[in-house]
Design goal:
single chain, alpha+beta, Fructose-1,6-Bisphosphatase, Chain A, domain 1, D-Maltodextrin-Binding Protein, domain 2, 2 domains, eight-stranded mixed sheet, six-stranded mixed sheet, 29% helix, binds 1,6-di-O-phosphono-beta-D-fructofuranose
Length: 332
């Protein structure tokens, strides 16, 4: 194995942004056109192509599915300049080329293209099932909330740590029937709720961004999205716990193949995304963290974030794309 210090080269930050920009530009062409599969397909294809020019030997560990169900960016696929040639930094990659396919199809807020990168073995190999998630922002005592504690207890402890009342807290969760009980209990405790239609990567990340007003994220969503959110929180700060929600024996067997020995294990942030981690995302539609792609005939403007756990640096990048000089970015 190569020297781990070169695994996540800081110069890769802008390379990652190019990858998420490509996916976002392609997906944005499908905004509001009512076809979530076309939007997703365009993002996947553009992201896959963009990876061909990134100076890594990458392995997709969180991707579009198994090799037999996804033609591109499937779990185990090798990507990057050195993938075939050999050499280069060996890294693991987590992708969600379009986080918020339905949002994009409807022209709603908060869809984005995301990528995370870690040293080999850095990411939890999460099967494509649900994960129960609990997240709070930075600057709080370790273990202030716990996935095994009750909703009421978590709200009480969080309010105490923030020196506020429970009525000041905002809980973010996906608007799903399965969350009715959590919603009922949060409301009964006096907390306020922010329901999002989709896109729990940005829902979780919102706890680390004071501007969003979100204090805590609760509820279940995709496990792959949980790992991506964990990668982002490792960089931007915050606490998160996740528990895989296996629904049947088949899923447990699949989990075992992927290295999950205890189906009830509660994963910490570090267990989901450990070591030196980078996270990049480009907005497809506008949300609290990122502006969506803005098209203007001969070009487009993209807004991206890229961050790294080792340095804690968070960069926002505005890309001005000229379709006359870069026709590949113009994907109709
Ligand atoms: O819609 P479900 O089944 O509740 O799944 C929740 C998951 O779907 C999303 O809302 C959006 O996923 P897509 O991008 O695949 O549409 C994720 O952010 C979330 O983790």
């Amino acid at each position: 194995m190569a020297d781990s210090s070169v695994h996540v080269d800081r110069n890769l930050a802008l390379e990652l942004v190019r990858v998420t920009e490509a996916a976002a530009l392609a997906a944005s062409r499908w905004m509001g056109r009512g076809d979530k599969n076309a939007a997703d397909g365009a993002a996947v294809e553009a992201m896959r192509k963009a990876f061909d020019t990134v100076a890594i030997s990458g392995t997709v560990v969180i991707g579009e599915g198994e090799m037999d169900e996804a033609p591109m960016l499937y779990i185990g696929e090798k990507v990057g300049i050195y993938a075939k040639a050999g050499g280069g930094p060996e890294v693991d990659i987590a992708v969600d080329p379009l986080e918020g396919t339905t949002i994009t199809a409807k022209g709603g807020p908060n869809a984005m293209a995301c990528v995370a990168l870690a040293q080999k073995g850095g990411f939890l190999h999460a099967p494509d099932i649900y994960m129960d998630k609990l997240a709070v922002g930075p600057g709080l005592p370790a273990g202030v909330v716990n996935i095994d504690a009750s909703v009421e207890e978590n709200l009480r402890e969080l309010a105490k740590a923030k020196q506020r009342s429970v009525t000041d807290l905002v809980v973010c969760l996906l608007d799903r029937d399965r969350h009715k009980e959590i919603v009922k209990r949060c409301r009964a405790a006096g907390a306020r709720i922010m329901m999002i239609p989709d896109g729990d990567v940005s829902g979780v990340v919102a706890v680390s961004q004071p501007d969003t007003g979100v204090d805590i994220y609760m509820g279940s969503g995709g496990a792959p999205e949980g790992v991506l959110a964990a990668a982002a929180l490792r960089c931007i700060g915050g606490q998160m716990q996740g528990r895989l929600l296996f629904e049947n024996e088949e899923q447990i067997a699949r989990g075992k193949e992927m290295g999950v020995t205890d189906p009830n294990h509660v994963y910490t942030l570090e267990e989901m995304a450990k070591g030196d981690v980078m996270f990049a995302a480009t907005g497809v539609t506008t949300g609290p963290m990122l502006r969506g792609v803005r098209h203007f005939g001969s070009g487009a403007v993209t807004h991206s974030i890229v961050m790294r756990s080792k340095s804690g640096t968070v960069r926002y990048v505005e890309g001005h794309h000229n379709f006359a000089l870069k026709p590949s970015a113009f994907v109709a």
